[in-house]
Amino acid sequence: MARKIVDKLEPRKTVPATLIGAGLGVAAGSLVAASVSALAGYFARRVVTPEERRASNAVIREITTDAQGKLWMHLARDAETAEPGGCTFLAEFDACAVRLSAPQDVAGKPKIVARQIEQVYRGTLDGVKRGYLSGAMYEHPSDLGFEAEDVSVSLDVGDGPAWLVPGTSHQDVWVIGVHGRGARRTESIRALPALAKAGVSTLLMSYRNDGLAPTAPDGRYGLGDTEWLDVEAAVHFATSRGARQVILLGWSMGGAISLQMADRSDLADRVDSLMLVGPVINWVDVLSHQARANKIPQSVGRFGQWLLSNEAGRWITGQAAPVNLKRLNWVDRAEELSHPILLMHSRDDQFVPNGPSLKLAALRPDLVSLKTFTLAGHTREPNVDPDGFTQAVSDFLAARINAYTAR
């Protein structure tokens, strides 16, 4: 089931999107146009607004203890709670965080999904009735046995907290983890076993508006059109600490960010290659899909895209500058790619469909390698198939390290 990117956030009180959209529509002389404008403005604004609260869709039915003394969380069954792979349960306002196992059926209770409680990171489940599930299963690299140094990357909006996990056999090869929309640096922790197998160093960064790094002046996502500057700063940090070969690991919107950095930065030549998980290759495709998933008429969705990408829309979206959706479309820009890329994308991703990834791999087989997964939801590839994920990453890194050494 698609996670709704237009769910649970209120527009800024300073410039109500519905009122401005309605004003534009009335100016056009039609009540229908006013409704279309209002909904399009609401949709566009929500796309670029960081989430202050997440929708708590996972409902706890009960917490039970089995014969071995293990705790289990019984959840109301739906597409998300039954999604394969382990996850983290987060209560509202992140007051409680609990790592859960992969789902299991409960005999005689077809409407229930059981997940074992593997670790309580913080808080308590007492009195908690609902929350949301995240694919970021770990809170800190130490949860997987990795030592991490707390470091700061100097972004143009302020210092961005990051974790540095030193490599072993290839300490001067750095992988920079770039998380997705609404996520944090914890998203990349799942990749550490694969990266450790290759012996490389890893920097798990934060960037503007993600709740850890400082907020941008407009408080809006750029969908990669602005955040790439923060990845540029991370690459500068890596090279200042001895990195000779840098590889970007982008998740979802982090893929779009990484692609922009590798294309537009003065440090692009310091980037050897990219590994992208469930990446946004073409925002127009994703936004169109999200509009359909949220039962938004096609005309409204298109107008929302226009608002995001044009100066006039800034008064509704609150952006300092419009998003250049054409520049973020790598299917149309496939010939402009210059870095080797590993795409890892599930055929069952219902949030960022893998169609553009398949197209890009077909258009540029000289640079793009594709590893497809099944059953995994959005960016859940390492949760559902950790062995396949580890193999794909370690094989790609081995090839890139060998290619760099052979220069």
TrEMBL record:
Coiled-coil stretches noted in the UniProt entry, renumbered to this chain: none
Record GO terms (molecular function): catalytic activity
Protein name: Lipase
UniProtKB keywords: Membrane, Transmembrane, Transmembrane helix
SUPFAM superfamilies cross-referenced by the UniProt entry: alpha/beta-Hydrolases
The keyword Transmembrane helix is assigned to this record: yes
Transmembrane region(s): 20-44
InterPro entries in the cross-refs: AB_hydrolase_1 (IPR000073), AB_hydrolase_fold (IPR029058), DNA-binding_regulatory (IPR052920)
Domain AB hydrolase-1: 174-291
Keyword Aminoacyl-tRNA synthetase among record annotations: no
